[in-house]
Specification:
With about 500 residues, the chain is of the alpha+beta class. It is about 60% helix and about 10% strand. It is globular, with a radius of gyration of 27 Å.
Length: about 500
């Protein structure tokens, strides 16, 4: 009851903020009662300037950190808000006024349990960046290393939890009052948002992600991940190697400094491919603000609070889906969704195949440089949810990353699609992991794994037999010898049959 009252007041405050920015138009985008649509029309501030998406972005920025994160998540839901609004939301900047340097120093000292003067010989009081969750200060260590110190905002954890609770409450009531909204999965969307946002508030997790990411990419030419200073890192403070460079989306500035945007685009395609397909561990928030081009022309990644991970099996499924779409083999696409278990077996596979065709044909008929694989995957996931596909958080993060990467590519060269550049790499990976040789390797690996499991199987069967025959059990060594040979023949025959069945 108390939660309902508290959040009820927040509904009023939120509605006022949306009305002030003339952003109540959202109630017209989803099934809502006629009185609410009428109220939104009456209360809207007609003097607010900008496109609908720009007005909504300003409203979300005014509402606070969790709403900013929500807006960034909605930026990939062109199917829900429309492509124009989604594009404007993708420009939503996570920037807030900085908090005082004295407070930043207090947080550092409390977290690292040492005076700032011992940790750093210099600590710049003016932050170089201030976002909704943290801000960054430059410093120099006693060892002479130039570093960037990221510090959580005081009280941000409690503020975020209040906002997340409110958003979840809204989503629950929306599904309860308007069942038609359930197809948009508002509760699942908020829960995914809550998971990623809470992870961002433990900076040790960001440091660990950065260290793993750096290790994966250590030998990659043209790409750099700053190293972590673990001695000056804790839950509320993380310290990175300081990096400098030009914004990746400033094409004119890059050219003025002698860099070739097409070469950077080619490298960006390689970087994206390596993250997703080679490593299965990718930067899920790689917008232009989180990338620089350093003096050596390398792409430098920043801010590792949101990372995605997909296992090899899911990568194979994703590759098959992409190949199916690009070859217009919608039967294959549908088959992958069902065989992978993404869509329940009781659903109508023919109907899902038809839905895939409805998604693919309008997109694939576009000129190659205009095809958006991120948009295609986003629409596909939305349609799959209508066929009762369970929420796939990592695929949602990947789809967002794809869309952002395509946007970065278009700023570098609007006439080239990043997928055109990455296509040879993807095709090579597909041959390696989906071709006949790859299937033969998987069969052999499955057979070896099965053979390795035989001793354990024999031991369990021996114990079962011993329990059944305990009163008349013969000598233990003789029993073990007999049991092993009794089961080994059928087991080997089973393995051989499975291998032959897979190969043939």
């Amino acid at each position: 009851m108390l939660r309902d009252l508290r959040n009820g007041w927040r509904v009023v405050a939120t509605a006022r903020c949306l009305a002030r920015h003339n952003a109540l138009f959202m109630v017209h985008l989803v099934p809502t009662p006629a009185p609410l649509r009428w109220a939104a029309h009456v209360l809207a501030n007609r003097r607010a300037k900008g496109r609908p998406g720009e007005r909504l972005a300003r409203a979300l920025q005014s509402l606070g950190p969790a709403f900013i994160k929500l807006g960034q998540s909605l930026a990939v839901r062109g199917d829900l808000l429309g492509e124009a609004i989604a594009r404007d939301l993708s420009q939503l900047q996570d920037r807030l006024p900085s908090f005082p340097a004295a407070v930043a120093r207090e947080v550092v000292e409390a977290e690292l349990e040492r005076p700032v003067g011992e940790l750093f010989t210099t600590f710049d009081d003016r932050p170089v960046a201030a976002a909704s969750i943290a801000q960054v200060h430059f410093a120099v260590t006693p060892e002479g290393e130039e570093v960037a110190v990221k510090i959580l905002r005081p009280g941000i954890e409690a503020a975020i939890e209040r906002d997340l609770d409110f958003l979840l409450w809204l989503a629950e009531w929306a599904e309860r009052l308007r069942p038609a909204l359930r197809r948009y999965r508002p509760v699942d969307t908020v829960r995914l948002l809550a998971t990623t946002t809470r992870q961002e508030m433990d900076l040790r997790l960001e440091a660990a992600a950065a260290a793993e990411f750096r290790q994966n990419c250590l030998e990659d030419e043209g790409f750099k991940v700053p190293k972590v200073d673990w001695r000056r890192t804790g839950r509320r403070v993380v310290t990175f190697e300081r990096v400098a460079g030009l914004p990746v989306d400033e094409r004119a500035q890059l050219i003025a400094h002698g860099f070739d945007p097409d070469a950077i685009l080619a490298q960006a395609a390689v970087v994206f491919f390596n993250q997703v397909f080679r490593d299965g561990f990718f930067h899920a928030d790689m917008h232009p603000g989180n990338m620089l081009i350093d003096a050596d022309g390398r792409i430098v990644a920043l801010d590792f609070g949101i990372m995605g991970r997909i296992d090899l099996a899911t990568r194979r499924h994703l590759a098959e889906i992409l190949v199916g779409f690009l070859s217009r083999d919608y039967e294959r696409v549908a088959a992958v969704f069902f065989s992978a278990g993404f869509v329940p077996a009781e659903q109508d596979q023919a109907a899902f195949q038809q839905a895939c065709r409805a998604i693919g044909e309008p997109i694939l008929d576009l000129p190659l440089n205009e095809i958006s694989i991120g948009r295609l995957l986003g629409q596909l996931l939305t349609v799959a949810e209508q066929f009762e596909m369970q929420q796939q958080p990592q695929l949602v993060l990947l789809q967002k990353t794809m869309a952002v990467s395509e946007g970065v590519g278009r700023t570098l060269n609007p006439n080239v699609n990043i997928w055109q550049v990455a296509q040879p790499l993807v095709e090579s990976w597909i041959r390696q992991h989906l071709g006949p040789e790859a299937q033969a390797r998987r069969v052999v690996a499955d057979g070896v794994a099965m053979l390795r499991s035989l001793p354990g199987l024999v031991t369990r069967l021996e114990r079962l037999t011993a329990d059944v025959d305990r009163p008349e059990r013969p000598d233990r060594s003789e029993h073990r010898w007999r049991t092993n040979w009794l089961w080994l023949g059928p087991a080997l025959a089973l393995v051989a049959g499975l291998l032959l069945g897979r190969l043939l």
